[in-house]
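TL;DR need structure tokens for one chain.
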Amino acid sequence: MGADVNAQGSFYENALQAASLGGHEAIAKLLIKKGADVNAQGGHYGNALQAASLRGHEAIAKLLIKKGADASAQGGLYGNALQAASYGGHEAIAMLLIEKGVEVNAHGGSYGNALQAASHRGHEAITKLLIDKGADVNRQEGEYGNALQAASYGGHEAITKLLIDKGADVNAQERAHGNALQAASYHGYEAITKLLIDMGADVNAQGGVYGNALQAASYGGYEAIANLLIKKGADVNSQGGCYENALLGASFRGHEAIAKLLIEKGANVNARGAGWGNALQAASYHGYEAVAKLLIDMGANVNAQGGHYGNALQSTSCRGHKAIAKLLIEKGADVNAHGGWFGNALQAASYGGHEAIGKLLIEKGADVNAQGGHYGNALKAVLHEDHKAELH
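>> reply
TL;DR here they are.
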């Protein structure tokens, strides 16, 4: 009794899809001859044609189509064979599929459509082919929202220009990445950032994870792009996004030069942010002493309240950054300030097992019996983490 050529299961779902992905033409022919279903659905790649198209196996793709494979079948990671071929950069297969009637704007898969897949991967020839065959340059869907944002995110300047020349909206919005300008700014693609601005991109457009392009560039540490955006009118105090403002984003990552630039251009050093409270708290938590000193020198309030850790001293005490803790105290930080997850700095240091900071705080007047915070008091925080050294 022979093996079932249409048996299903595993990553490839069936033997024909596995052979097609691997480029094994003779095996694919044998399986089809023995009754393998060329349109069987399932598995990571949806069907055999999509698998062959992804890897660029033109002879197998032709064989499958000749034997009745539906060139427009939907399913799998890439939605359809055309998107798979476009993602993989296989122009000849993409052309074959289009000639067989595949809709260039077919929806589905991770990238939403073939144009977005080709744009993200930087396949200029396929991008041009798809547009020439009627692909909608402004279609909104998929992981990157639209083809322009996908190209900008991937750093493909030539494709970005091509899409704009063909009518792509430079200010099109998408929830996750905001817009093309934010995507390019986040990844440090200066030439694309400049191109988008020259073509009318709004430097203050809101949306996406980082709120706006300036916050994205500041978080990423791209000083030249941050400077360009500011020169083109970006609001240094714009609120929104994951870090609420550009200065907090730069401080969170320790980008001193960008933090200095933003402050020089008018950024509010005491601007509040949700999770981190303010830029000083973010810099203090991560141990960026130079940034913390800069912020203080520029007027940051060392006792500002807010955020998960209540204030800068509590945040740096939690992480064990003694130099910053000492700096904050020297600049007037209240060692008994209440608020935040740990209630006060001493409880935060005790929980983290940072004996040197605990001693420093006590020497500066921290109340060892202060109540509050998640653990109630410093002693309970020590016992919770079993930091015996703190008790002596």
